[in-house]
Design brief:
- One of its GO terms (cellular component) is Golgi membrane.
- One of its GO terms (biological process) is glycosaminoglycan biosynthetic process.
- This is 2-phosphoxylose phosphatase 1.
- One of its GO terms (molecular function) is phosphatase activity.
- It contains 13 helices and eleven strands.
- The protein is of the alpha/beta class.
- It folds into two domains: 61-232 and 331-467, 3-Layer(aba) Sandwich (Rossmann fold); 240-329, no CATH class.
- Strands 1, 2, 3, 4, 7, 8, 9, 10 and 11 form a nine-stranded mixed beta sheet that branches.
- Strand 5 (301-302) and strand 6 (305-306) form a beta hairpin.
- It starts with 50 loop residues before the first helix and ends in a 5-residue tail after the last helix.
- 48% of the residues are buried.
């Protein structure tokens, strides 16, 4: 979901956009050795980008157990650490369509209601015991699971909880049962947990953690609070990043002005709900419409008519076109390189400590937003990756070669698909090496140097790149 910038850390998309990337990643279960480009599947993908198909992928409605490529490596490689970035699960809209009834979605957790997960009841029971847990303020004032009969704005739904229980169980089967990443008597300092101050991100993180470590000891859990959606901690002030953002938003605005069909559609919808077109657009109707679609609830009607699927398709089709132009103009890439640098720098620091044999923070979890994951994907060069769906996961794996213990490698996976060799820092490496992963030093060099080279100019560090004159 894309929203206008409320503060320089909290959002990067205009209010009218959902922003789904139209090129598909490879399907789950693809060969771990495949190094083909991540292109649409000719069997299951529509021949032309279908806005409704894209929206349903974005909903990520839980169904059959997912096949994934996490944890795939030659037998002589040892898994050293795992770094997981998630988008929160399915949520209630942040906006309402003016003068229409809110979609009636129940945000209590009910075991016999779809979508169901076998750990759902146990999750609720365990969360009810967490009042004495340790959360950095202001997280300690948030509810640990959704519990309103009519969802509050932005509240995680049962679908969102189930999505992350599934994610957690999948990662448990791979990283704990197969690779023994953590010992049975794991300690608090072996986990690193961080979330923004929204109930939907804290609850999503807890659902994944419960799937990963069922019935965990609350005394071992400490969630840190991150005030910035970019997870930039103490490095958030970056004037040049904001200049890229302003130029990108201007580009989006001009593209919208050129789309007469889009303006006509907003005008039609505004007449249906009897408000000025400008007010309708500002209410971000697509946010509410997606909730109707994901939960199979009819679009709203008034005495003047009904908002319908054709309106939805026009807005979605514009967003797909916007995405194509966004990749071509590269302004968002500049924003992303600076926006993603702090969290990537923190991640490689944690990896480097693990290569020294340190046993702290072997499993890191960042529970975040689409506006967290999207800049990271863009900065890594993953231009063909879909925009973060509900409960999207981006994972960095660190591996040690047992035959050459001083050599460490990384794998990067997005929603279970190995995208390591689609990253800008490793797309050429596999031409010279048969190993199915990338040297850690490639990622370190990218974060410490190449991210700044990609921005142009003479900057060689984050501070200088953020304060470059004459941009």
């Amino acid at each position: 979901m894309r929203y206008f910038l409320k503060s320089m850390e909290h959002s990067i998309w205009p209010s009218s956009a959902v922003h789904l990337i139209p090129v598909s990643t490879a399907k789950n279960g693809a060969s771990s050795k495949s190094r083909k480009r991540i292109m649409p599947d000719p069997v299951t993908e529509p021949p032309v980008t279908d806005p409704v198909y894209e929206a349903l992928l974005y909903c990520n409605i839980p169904s059959v157990a997912e096949r994934s490529m996490e944890g795939h490596a030659p037998h002589h490689f040892k898994l050293v650490s795992v770094h997981v970035f998630i988008r929160h699960g399915d949520r209630y809209p942040l906006y309402v369509i003016p003068k229409t009834k809110r979609p009636e979605i129940d945000c209590t957790l009910v075991a016999n209601r779809k979508p169901y997960h076998p750990k759902l009841e146990a999750f609720v029971s365990h969360m009810s015991k967490g009042s004495g847990a340790s959360f950095e303020s202001p997280l300690n004032s948030l509810p640990l699971y959704p519990n309103h009969p009519l969802c509050e704005m932005g509240e995680l739904t049962q679908t969102g909880v189930v999505q992350h229980l599934q994610n957690g169980q999948l990662l448990r089967d791979i990283y704990l049962k197969k690779h023994k990443l953590l010992p049975n008597d794991w300690s608090a300092d072996q986990l690193y947990l961080e979330t923004t101050g929204k109930s939907r991100t804290l609850q999503s993180g807890l659902a994944l953690l419960y799937g990963f470590l069922p019935d965990f000891d609350w005394k071992k859990i400490y969630f840190r609070h991150q005030p910035s959606a970019l997870f930039c901690s103490g490095s958030c002030y970056c004037p040049v990043r904001n200049q890229y953002l302003e130029k990108e938003q201007r580009r989006q605005y001009l593209l919208r002005l050129k789309n007469s069909q889009l303006e006509k559609t907003y005008g039609e919808m505004a007449k249906i709900v009897d408000v000025p077109t400008k007010q309708l657009r500002a209410a971000n109707p697509i946010d509410s419409m997606l909730c109707h679609l994901c939960h199979n609830v009819s679009f709203p009607c008034t005495r003047n008519g009904c908002v319908d699927m054709e309106h939805f398709k026009v807005i979605k089709t514009h967003q797909i076109e916007d995405e194509r132009e966004r990749r071509e103009k590269k302004l968002y890439l500049g924003y992303s390189l600076l926006g993603a640098h702090p969290i990537l720098n923190q991640t490689i620091g944690r990896m480097q400590r693990a290569t020294e044999g340190r046993k702290e923070e072997l499993f890191a979890l960042y529970s975040a937003h689409d506006v967290t994951l999207s800049p990271v994907l863009s900065a890594l060069g993953l231009s063909e990756a879909r925009f973060p769906r509900f409960a999207a996961r981006l994972i960095f794996e660190l591996w040690q070669d047992r035959e050459k213990p001083n050599e460490h490698s990384v794998r990067i996976l997005y929603n279970g698909v190995d995208v390591t060799f689609h990253t800008s820092f490793c797309q050429d490496h596999h031409k010279r090496s048969p190993k199915p992963m990338c040297p850690l030093e490639n990622l370190v060099r990218f974060v410490k140097r190449d991210m700044f080279v990609a921005l142009g100019g003479s900057s060689t560090n984050y501070y200088d790149a953020c304060h470059r004159e004459g941009f």
